[in-house]
Amino acid sequence: SDSTADLSPADGHRARELDRHILHSWSKHPATNPLAIARASGVRMWDHDGREYLDFSSQLVNTNIGHAHPRVVEAIQRQAAELATVAPATTNLVRGEAAERILSKIDAMAAVFFTNGGADAVENAIRIARVHTGRTKVLSHYRSYHGNTGAAINATGDTRRVGNEFAVGHVHCFGPFLYRSEFWAETPEQEAERALQHARRVIEAEGPSTFAAILVEPVPGTAGILVPPPGYLQGLRELADAHGIVLIIDEVMAGFGRTGEWFAHQHDGVRPDLVTFAKGSNSGYVPVGGVIIAEHILETFRERPIPGGLTYSGHPLAAASIVASIDAMTDEGIIEHAAHLGADVLGPGLRELAERHPIIGEVRGRGCFWALDLVADRDSRRPVDASVVAGLKGALLERGYLPFTADNRIHVVPPLVMSDDDARAGLAILDEVLAAHASAAP
Ligand code: PLP
Protein backbone atom coordinates (compact mmCIF):
# COMPACT_ATOMS: atom_id res chain seq x y z
CA SER A 1 0.00 0.00 0.00
CA ASP A 2 1.20 3.55 -0.55
CA SER A 3 -0.69 4.89 2.43
CA THR A 4 1.33 7.63 4.04
CA ALA A 5 -0.90 8.07 7.09
CA ASP A 6 1.71 6.61 9.45
CA LEU A 7 4.63 8.74 8.29
CA SER A 8 5.93 10.68 11.23
CA PRO A 9 8.12 13.80 11.47
CA ALA A 10 9.77 12.10 14.46
CA ASP A 11 11.12 9.42 12.09
CA GLY A 12 12.34 12.14 9.77
CA HIS A 13 14.14 13.81 12.64
CA ARG A 14 15.71 10.50 13.66
CA ALA A 15 16.71 9.65 10.06
CA ARG A 16 18.56 12.97 9.81
CA GLU A 17 20.23 12.37 13.19
CA LEU A 18 21.43 8.86 12.25
CA ASP A 19 22.67 10.12 8.89
CA ARG A 20 25.89 11.27 10.59
CA HIS A 21 26.90 7.60 10.75
CA ILE A 22 27.07 7.48 6.96
CA LEU A 23 29.81 8.87 4.74
CA HIS A 24 27.80 9.53 1.57
CA SER A 25 29.00 9.19 -2.03
CA TRP A 26 30.71 12.31 -3.48
CA SER A 27 29.93 14.24 -0.24
CA LYS A 28 31.61 16.08 2.58
CA HIS A 29 30.84 14.72 6.03
CA PRO A 30 28.30 15.15 7.49
CA ALA A 31 26.12 15.50 4.38
CA THR A 32 23.44 18.16 4.09
CA ASN A 33 20.88 16.46 1.85
CA PRO A 34 17.50 18.06 2.57
CA LEU A 35 15.53 14.94 1.59
CA ALA A 36 14.61 12.17 4.04
CA ILE A 37 12.66 9.75 1.85
CA ALA A 38 10.53 7.14 3.56
CA ARG A 39 8.42 5.53 0.86
CA ALA A 40 7.78 5.41 -2.89
CA SER A 41 5.26 4.06 -5.36
CA GLY A 42 5.13 4.48 -9.14
CA VAL A 43 6.47 7.96 -9.89
CA ARG A 44 5.78 9.35 -6.40
CA MET A 45 7.96 9.51 -3.30
CA TRP A 46 7.13 10.64 0.21
CA ASP A 47 9.42 12.05 2.85
CA HIS A 48 9.06 11.17 6.52
CA ASP A 49 6.80 14.19 7.03
CA GLY A 50 4.42 12.89 4.37
CA ARG A 51 5.40 15.51 1.75
CA GLU A 52 4.90 14.17 -1.76
CA TYR A 53 7.37 14.44 -4.65
CA LEU A 54 6.98 13.61 -8.34
CA ASP A 55 10.19 11.82 -9.26
CA PHE A 56 11.72 13.45 -12.33
CA SER A 57 15.16 11.96 -11.52
CA SER A 58 14.40 8.22 -11.47
CA GLN A 59 16.89 8.50 -8.55
CA LEU A 60 20.21 8.03 -10.39
CA VAL A 61 18.34 7.50 -13.66
CA ASN A 62 17.68 3.88 -12.72
CA THR A 63 14.07 3.35 -11.60
CA ASN A 64 12.81 2.92 -15.17
CA ILE A 65 9.78 0.83 -14.14
CA GLY A 66 8.89 3.18 -11.29
CA HIS A 67 8.94 2.49 -7.59
CA ALA A 68 7.40 -0.56 -5.88
CA HIS A 69 6.17 -2.27 -9.04
CA PRO A 70 4.05 -5.12 -7.59
CA ARG A 71 5.32 -7.81 -10.00
CA VAL A 72 8.96 -7.07 -9.24
CA VAL A 73 8.37 -6.82 -5.48
CA GLU A 74 6.51 -10.12 -5.46
CA ALA A 75 9.22 -11.88 -7.50
CA ILE A 76 11.93 -10.73 -5.07
CA GLN A 77 9.88 -11.82 -2.04
CA ARG A 78 9.18 -15.24 -3.54
CA GLN A 79 12.84 -15.73 -4.53
CA ALA A 80 14.08 -14.63 -1.08
CA ALA A 81 12.03 -17.36 0.58
CA GLU A 82 13.03 -20.00 -2.00
CA LEU A 83 16.77 -19.35 -2.43
CA ALA A 84 18.24 -15.97 -1.55
CA THR A 85 21.88 -16.71 -2.34
CA VAL A 86 23.91 -19.45 -3.98
CA ALA A 87 27.54 -19.64 -5.15
CA PRO A 88 28.06 -18.01 -8.54
CA ALA A 89 29.16 -21.14 -10.41
CA THR A 90 26.01 -23.07 -9.45
CA THR A 91 23.46 -23.77 -12.16
CA ASN A 92 20.18 -22.20 -11.10
CA LEU A 93 16.99 -21.71 -13.09
CA VAL A 94 16.27 -18.05 -12.34
CA ARG A 95 19.84 -17.11 -13.34
CA GLY A 96 19.42 -18.71 -16.74
CA GLU A 97 16.03 -17.09 -17.16
CA ALA A 98 17.45 -13.64 -16.43
CA ALA A 99 20.14 -14.10 -19.09
CA GLU A 100 17.59 -15.50 -21.55
CA ARG A 101 15.27 -12.50 -21.05
CA ILE A 102 18.12 -10.03 -21.62
CA LEU A 103 19.36 -11.84 -24.74
CA SER A 104 15.82 -11.83 -26.16
CA LYS A 105 15.88 -8.01 -26.35
CA ILE A 106 19.12 -7.65 -28.33
CA ASP A 107 20.19 -9.18 -31.66
CA ALA A 108 23.06 -11.57 -32.17
CA MET A 109 24.46 -11.74 -28.63
CA ALA A 110 25.40 -15.05 -27.01
CA ALA A 111 25.86 -14.80 -23.23
CA VAL A 112 25.73 -12.58 -20.14
CA PHE A 113 28.40 -12.09 -17.45
CA PHE A 114 26.60 -10.74 -14.36
CA THR A 115 28.07 -8.13 -12.01
CA ASN A 116 26.84 -6.11 -9.02
CA GLY A 117 26.39 -2.78 -10.80
CA GLY A 118 27.52 -0.58 -13.66
CA ALA A 119 31.14 0.15 -12.77
CA ASP A 120 32.11 -3.49 -12.43
CA ALA A 121 30.22 -4.24 -15.65
CA VAL A 122 32.52 -1.74 -17.41
CA GLU A 123 35.51 -3.16 -15.53
CA ASN A 124 34.77 -6.66 -16.78
CA ALA A 125 33.93 -5.56 -20.33
CA ILE A 126 37.37 -3.93 -20.53
CA ARG A 127 38.96 -7.06 -19.11
CA ILE A 128 37.14 -9.28 -21.64
CA ALA A 129 38.26 -7.01 -24.50
CA ARG A 130 41.85 -7.11 -23.26
CA VAL A 131 41.88 -10.90 -22.92
CA HIS A 132 40.24 -11.29 -26.33
CA THR A 133 42.65 -8.98 -28.18
CA GLY A 134 45.81 -9.36 -26.09
CA ARG A 135 46.04 -5.55 -26.18
CA THR A 136 45.73 -2.91 -23.47
CA LYS A 137 44.51 0.53 -24.58
CA VAL A 138 40.95 1.76 -24.32
CA LEU A 139 39.63 4.77 -26.21
CA SER A 140 36.69 6.57 -24.56
CA HIS A 141 35.15 10.05 -24.55
CA TYR A 142 36.18 12.97 -22.39
CA ARG A 143 32.46 13.71 -22.05
CA SER A 144 31.52 10.41 -20.41
CA TYR A 145 30.86 8.61 -17.16
CA HIS A 146 31.60 4.90 -16.82
CA GLY A 147 31.71 4.32 -13.06
CA ASN A 148 33.95 4.74 -10.07
CA THR A 149 36.24 1.70 -9.90
CA GLY A 150 39.82 1.33 -11.22
CA ALA A 151 39.50 1.04 -15.00
CA ALA A 152 35.96 2.49 -15.14
CA ILE A 153 36.95 5.79 -13.53
CA ASN A 154 39.98 6.02 -15.79
CA ALA A 155 37.80 5.46 -18.83
CA THR A 156 35.51 8.21 -17.52
CA GLY A 157 36.48 11.47 -19.16
CA ASP A 158 35.32 14.03 -16.62
CA THR A 159 37.49 15.52 -13.90
CA ARG A 160 36.55 12.82 -11.40
CA ARG A 161 39.20 10.52 -12.90
CA VAL A 162 41.96 12.78 -11.61
CA GLY A 163 43.48 11.16 -8.53
CA ASN A 164 42.56 7.62 -9.62
CA GLU A 165 45.66 6.76 -11.59
CA PHE A 166 45.90 3.03 -10.88
CA ALA A 167 44.67 1.74 -14.23
CA VAL A 168 46.78 1.96 -17.37
CA GLY A 169 46.20 2.43 -21.06
CA HIS A 170 43.34 4.92 -21.18
CA VAL A 171 43.11 7.40 -24.06
CA HIS A 172 40.32 9.95 -24.53
CA CYS A 173 38.78 11.86 -27.39
CA PHE A 174 36.08 14.51 -27.81
CA GLY A 175 32.88 12.76 -28.86
CA PRO A 176 30.09 14.62 -30.65
CA PHE A 177 28.41 17.61 -28.95
CA LEU A 178 27.21 20.01 -31.61
CA TYR A 179 25.97 22.71 -29.21
CA ARG A 180 29.43 23.01 -27.69
CA SER A 181 31.53 21.67 -30.58
CA GLU A 182 35.28 22.16 -30.17
CA PHE A 183 36.05 23.03 -33.75
CA TRP A 184 34.32 23.81 -37.02
CA ALA A 185 31.11 21.81 -37.00
CA GLU A 186 27.84 23.59 -37.72
CA THR A 187 25.57 20.68 -38.64
CA PRO A 188 25.03 17.24 -37.03
CA GLU A 189 26.65 15.61 -40.08
CA GLN A 190 29.72 17.83 -39.74
CA GLU A 191 29.94 17.14 -36.00
CA ALA A 192 29.79 13.37 -36.63
CA GLU A 193 32.58 13.75 -39.18
CA ARG A 194 34.58 16.06 -36.87
CA ALA A 195 34.38 13.55 -33.99
CA LEU A 196 35.14 10.53 -36.20
CA GLN A 197 38.14 12.22 -37.78
CA HIS A 198 39.39 13.09 -34.30
CA ALA A 199 38.93 9.50 -33.00
CA ARG A 200 40.65 8.14 -36.12
CA ARG A 201 43.62 10.50 -35.68
CA VAL A 202 44.00 9.63 -31.98
CA ILE A 203 43.98 5.89 -32.72
CA GLU A 204 46.48 6.30 -35.57
CA ALA A 205 48.78 8.45 -33.45
CA GLU A 206 48.67 6.01 -30.52
CA GLY A 207 49.10 2.93 -32.75
CA PRO A 208 45.96 1.06 -33.87
CA SER A 209 47.38 -2.35 -32.88
CA THR A 210 47.66 -1.23 -29.23
CA PHE A 211 43.89 -0.76 -28.76
CA ALA A 212 41.77 -3.44 -27.10
CA ALA A 213 38.54 -1.44 -27.06
CA ILE A 214 36.57 1.60 -28.02
CA LEU A 215 34.20 2.22 -25.08
CA VAL A 216 31.28 4.64 -25.51
CA GLU A 217 27.88 5.42 -24.10
CA PRO A 218 25.30 5.30 -26.92
CA VAL A 219 23.95 8.56 -25.48
CA PRO A 220 26.42 10.03 -22.95
CA GLY A 221 24.13 10.57 -19.94
CA THR A 222 25.87 12.14 -16.95
CA ALA A 223 27.86 14.31 -19.37
CA GLY A 224 24.66 15.98 -20.63
CA ILE A 225 22.42 13.56 -22.60
CA LEU A 226 24.35 13.95 -25.85
CA VAL A 227 22.30 12.13 -28.49
CA PRO A 228 24.90 11.30 -31.17
CA PRO A 229 24.46 12.62 -34.71
CA PRO A 230 23.42 10.03 -37.31
CA GLY A 231 26.34 7.92 -38.51
CA TYR A 232 28.64 8.48 -35.54
CA LEU A 233 28.25 5.11 -33.80
CA GLN A 234 28.33 3.33 -37.17
CA GLY A 235 31.56 5.22 -37.93
CA LEU A 236 33.08 3.95 -34.67
CA ARG A 237 31.99 0.42 -35.63
CA GLU A 238 33.89 0.75 -38.92
CA LEU A 239 36.93 2.20 -37.15
CA ALA A 240 36.92 -0.71 -34.68
CA ASP A 241 36.56 -3.27 -37.50
CA ALA A 242 39.40 -1.72 -39.48
CA HIS A 243 41.83 -2.37 -36.62
CA GLY A 244 40.48 -5.49 -34.85
CA ILE A 245 39.28 -3.39 -31.90
CA VAL A 246 36.37 -4.48 -29.65
CA LEU A 247 33.41 -2.04 -29.61
CA ILE A 248 31.93 -1.77 -26.10
CA ILE A 249 28.63 0.10 -25.87
CA ASP A 250 27.96 1.22 -22.28
CA GLU A 251 24.17 1.02 -21.88
CA VAL A 252 24.22 1.32 -18.08
CA MET A 253 22.16 4.54 -18.09
CA ALA A 254 20.64 4.61 -21.59
CA GLY A 255 19.57 0.95 -21.72
CA PHE A 256 16.33 -0.82 -20.86
CA GLY A 257 13.93 1.64 -22.40
CA ARG A 258 15.28 4.98 -21.21
CA THR A 259 15.47 6.30 -24.81
CA GLY A 260 12.33 4.53 -26.06
CA GLU A 261 14.14 1.41 -27.35
CA TRP A 262 15.31 -1.54 -25.29
CA PHE A 263 18.88 -0.42 -25.96
CA ALA A 264 19.84 3.07 -27.12
CA HIS A 265 22.26 1.83 -29.78
CA GLN A 266 19.31 0.18 -31.53
CA HIS A 267 18.23 3.65 -32.74
CA ASP A 268 21.49 3.73 -34.71
CA GLY A 269 21.40 0.18 -36.07
CA VAL A 270 24.94 -0.45 -34.86
CA ARG A 271 26.19 -3.91 -33.84
CA PRO A 272 28.29 -3.93 -30.64
CA ASP A 273 30.73 -6.64 -29.52
CA LEU A 274 30.06 -6.09 -25.81
CA VAL A 275 27.22 -4.23 -24.07
CA THR A 276 27.32 -3.20 -20.42
CA PHE A 277 24.07 -2.76 -18.48
CA ALA A 278 22.85 -2.18 -14.90
CA LYS A 279 20.35 0.44 -13.65
CA GLY A 280 17.19 -0.07 -15.77
CA SER A 281 17.62 -3.84 -16.09
CA ASN A 282 15.72 -4.25 -12.80
CA SER A 283 15.24 -0.59 -11.85
CA GLY A 284 17.66 -0.92 -8.96
CA TYR A 285 15.41 -2.99 -6.70
CA VAL A 286 18.48 -5.21 -6.11
CA PRO A 287 21.98 -4.09 -7.16
CA VAL A 288 22.94 -5.75 -10.45
CA GLY A 289 24.74 -5.18 -13.74
CA GLY A 290 26.49 -7.18 -16.40
CA VAL A 291 28.16 -7.58 -19.77
CA ILE A 292 26.33 -8.94 -22.81
CA ILE A 293 28.80 -10.80 -25.02
CA ALA A 294 28.77 -11.49 -28.78
CA GLU A 295 29.46 -15.05 -29.97
CA HIS A 296 32.84 -14.27 -31.58
CA ILE A 297 34.10 -12.82 -28.28
CA LEU A 298 32.68 -15.71 -26.27
CA GLU A 299 34.85 -18.04 -28.42
CA THR A 300 37.89 -16.79 -26.48
CA PHE A 301 36.47 -18.28 -23.29
CA ARG A 302 35.87 -21.70 -24.86
CA GLU A 303 39.65 -22.07 -24.76
CA ARG A 304 40.48 -20.39 -21.45
CA PRO A 305 38.54 -19.29 -18.36
CA ILE A 306 37.60 -15.64 -17.86
CA PRO A 307 40.10 -14.38 -15.27
CA GLY A 308 37.50 -12.85 -12.99
CA GLY A 309 34.39 -13.39 -10.91
CA LEU A 310 32.28 -12.00 -8.08
CA THR A 311 30.63 -13.65 -5.06
CA TYR A 312 27.28 -12.20 -6.10
CA SER A 313 27.53 -12.73 -9.87
CA GLY A 314 24.04 -13.79 -10.97
CA HIS A 315 22.55 -13.25 -7.51
CA PRO A 316 19.14 -14.98 -7.36
CA LEU A 317 17.29 -11.91 -6.02
CA ALA A 318 18.77 -9.78 -8.79
CA ALA A 319 17.98 -12.45 -11.38
CA ALA A 320 14.37 -12.78 -10.21
CA SER A 321 13.94 -9.01 -10.31
CA ILE A 322 15.35 -8.84 -13.87
CA VAL A 323 12.95 -11.54 -15.10
CA ALA A 324 9.91 -9.86 -13.50
CA SER A 325 10.98 -6.41 -14.64
CA ILE A 326 11.59 -7.35 -18.29
CA ASP A 327 8.31 -9.30 -18.38
CA ALA A 328 6.37 -6.38 -16.91
CA MET A 329 8.01 -3.90 -19.30
CA THR A 330 7.12 -6.15 -22.23
CA ASP A 331 3.53 -6.95 -21.18
CA GLU A 332 2.69 -3.38 -20.15
CA GLY A 333 4.20 -1.71 -23.23
CA ILE A 334 6.47 0.42 -21.05
CA ILE A 335 9.17 0.93 -23.71
CA GLU A 336 6.55 2.10 -26.22
CA HIS A 337 5.12 4.44 -23.58
CA ALA A 338 8.58 5.95 -22.99
CA ALA A 339 8.90 6.62 -26.73
CA HIS A 340 5.43 8.22 -26.75
CA LEU A 341 6.20 10.39 -23.71
CA GLY A 342 9.34 11.67 -25.41
CA ALA A 343 7.79 12.28 -28.81
CA ASP A 344 4.41 13.66 -27.73
CA VAL A 345 4.74 15.19 -24.26
CA LEU A 346 8.26 15.78 -22.91
CA GLY A 347 9.99 16.75 -26.17
CA PRO A 348 7.35 19.25 -27.38
CA GLY A 349 6.72 20.49 -23.82
CA LEU A 350 10.40 21.18 -23.11
CA ARG A 351 10.89 22.89 -26.49
CA GLU A 352 7.94 25.10 -25.70
CA LEU A 353 9.59 26.02 -22.38
CA ALA A 354 12.74 26.96 -24.32
CA GLU A 355 10.69 29.39 -26.43
CA ARG A 356 9.57 31.21 -23.31
CA HIS A 357 12.71 31.03 -21.15
CA PRO A 358 15.98 32.37 -22.61
CA ILE A 359 17.92 30.64 -19.81
CA ILE A 360 17.37 27.40 -21.76
CA GLY A 361 20.16 27.32 -24.35
CA GLU A 362 19.36 23.90 -25.74
CA VAL A 363 16.86 21.08 -25.21
CA ARG A 364 18.16 17.65 -26.19
CA GLY A 365 17.16 14.04 -25.68
CA ARG A 366 14.64 11.38 -26.61
CA GLY A 367 12.28 9.03 -24.75
CA CYS A 368 12.48 9.75 -21.02
CA PHE A 369 16.04 11.06 -21.32
CA TRP A 370 16.20 14.87 -21.65
CA ALA A 371 18.53 17.71 -20.68
CA LEU A 372 17.99 21.45 -20.41
CA ASP A 373 21.35 23.13 -21.05
CA LEU A 374 21.08 26.38 -19.07
CA VAL A 375 23.00 29.46 -20.24
CA ALA A 376 23.73 32.88 -18.79
CA ASP A 377 23.57 34.26 -22.33
CA ARG A 378 22.23 32.60 -25.47
CA ASP A 379 24.73 34.19 -27.86
CA SER A 380 27.88 33.11 -26.08
CA ARG A 381 26.24 29.91 -24.72
CA ARG A 382 28.07 30.54 -21.45
CA PRO A 383 26.78 28.02 -18.88
CA VAL A 384 24.94 29.41 -15.85
CA ASP A 385 26.79 29.30 -12.52
CA ALA A 386 26.31 26.38 -10.14
CA SER A 387 24.46 28.69 -7.75
CA VAL A 388 21.70 29.24 -10.34
CA VAL A 389 21.16 25.49 -10.71
CA ALA A 390 21.19 25.06 -6.91
CA GLY A 391 18.52 27.78 -6.59
CA LEU A 392 16.31 26.17 -9.25
CA LYS A 393 16.75 22.77 -7.62
CA GLY A 394 15.55 24.12 -4.27
CA ALA A 395 12.55 25.84 -5.84
CA LEU A 396 11.56 22.67 -7.73
CA LEU A 397 11.79 20.58 -4.54
CA GLU A 398 9.61 23.09 -2.69
CA ARG A 399 6.92 22.56 -5.32
CA GLY A 400 7.11 18.76 -5.09
CA TYR A 401 9.24 18.21 -8.23
CA LEU A 402 12.23 15.95 -7.49
CA PRO A 403 14.89 17.02 -10.04
CA PHE A 404 18.18 15.62 -11.35
CA THR A 405 20.77 18.34 -11.87
CA ALA A 406 24.37 18.21 -13.11
CA ASP A 407 26.75 21.12 -13.81
CA ASN A 408 24.67 23.79 -15.63
CA ARG A 409 21.87 21.39 -16.50
CA ILE A 410 18.53 20.03 -15.40
CA HIS A 411 18.07 16.47 -16.65
CA VAL A 412 14.39 15.56 -17.10
CA VAL A 413 14.55 11.81 -16.58
CA PRO A 414 11.34 10.43 -15.01
CA PRO A 415 10.45 6.75 -14.64
CA LEU A 416 9.20 5.45 -17.99
CA VAL A 417 5.80 4.66 -16.45
CA MET A 418 4.94 8.32 -15.82
CA SER A 419 1.45 9.25 -17.07
CA ASP A 420 1.01 12.03 -19.62
CA ASP A 421 -0.80 14.08 -16.96
CA ASP A 422 2.00 13.74 -14.40
CA ALA A 423 4.55 14.66 -17.07
CA ARG A 424 2.49 17.78 -17.93
CA ALA A 425 2.22 18.64 -14.22
CA GLY A 426 6.03 18.50 -14.00
CA LEU A 427 6.42 20.69 -17.09
CA ALA A 428 4.06 23.24 -15.49
CA ILE A 429 6.20 23.28 -12.32
CA LEU A 430 9.36 23.77 -14.40
CA ASP A 431 7.66 26.64 -16.23
CA GLU A 432 6.64 28.29 -12.96
CA VAL A 433 10.09 27.94 -11.40
CA LEU A 434 11.90 29.27 -14.50
CA ALA A 435 9.48 32.21 -14.66
CA ALA A 436 10.03 33.02 -10.97
CA HIS A 437 13.80 32.81 -11.53
CA ALA A 438 13.60 35.21 -14.51
CA SER A 439 11.51 37.76 -12.63
CA ALA A 440 13.82 37.58 -9.58
CA ALA A 441 16.99 38.04 -11.66
CA PRO A 442 18.62 41.50 -11.43
N1 PLP B 1 28.23 3.60 -16.97
C1 PLP B 1 27.34 4.58 -17.16
C2 PLP B 1 27.00 5.01 -18.55
C3 PLP B 1 26.71 5.20 -16.06
O1 PLP B 1 25.84 6.19 -16.27
C4 PLP B 1 27.06 4.76 -14.76
C5 PLP B 1 26.42 5.39 -13.58
O2 PLP B 1 25.81 6.43 -13.63
C6 PLP B 1 27.99 3.74 -14.61
C7 PLP B 1 28.55 3.17 -15.74
C8 PLP B 1 28.37 3.24 -13.25
O3 PLP B 1 27.34 2.49 -12.69
P1 PLP B 1 27.31 2.20 -11.12
O4 PLP B 1 27.11 3.50 -10.44
O5 PLP B 1 26.15 1.23 -10.97
O6 PLP B 1 28.59 1.55 -10.75
Describe the structure.
- The structure is a single chain.
- This protein has 442 residues and is α/β, with parallel strands linked by helices.
- The protein has 2 domains: 9-63 and 333-440, Alpha-Beta Complex (Aspartate Aminotransferase, domain 1), CATH 3.90.1150.10; 70-331, Type I PLP-dependent aspartate aminotransferase-like (Major domain) (Aspartate Aminotransferase, domain 2, 3-Layer(aba) Sandwich).
- The protein is 39% helix and 17% strand.
- The protein has 14 helices and 16 strands.
- It has helices at 9-18, 58-61, 70-82, 93-103, 118-133, 150-155, 188-206, 232-242, 295-298, 300-303, 316-331, 334-356, 386-398, 420-440, and strands spanning 37-41, 44-47, 52-55, 111-115, 137-141, 170-173, 211-216, 246-250, 274-277, 289-293, 360-366, 369-377, 382-383, 401-402, 404-406, 409-412.
- The strands form 3 sheets. A 7-stranded mixed β-sheet has the order 4-10-9-8-7-5-6, sandwiched between helices. Strands 11, 12, 13, 15 and 16 form a 5-stranded antiparallel β-sheet that branches.
- A hairpin with a 4-residue loop joins strand 2 and strand 3 (52-55).
- Helix 13 crosses helix 14 (420-440).
- The longest helix is centred in the last third of the chain and has 23 residues, at 334-356.
- The N and C termini lie far apart (47 Å).
- The site of pyridoxal-5'-phosphate (PLP) has 16 residues, from helix 5.
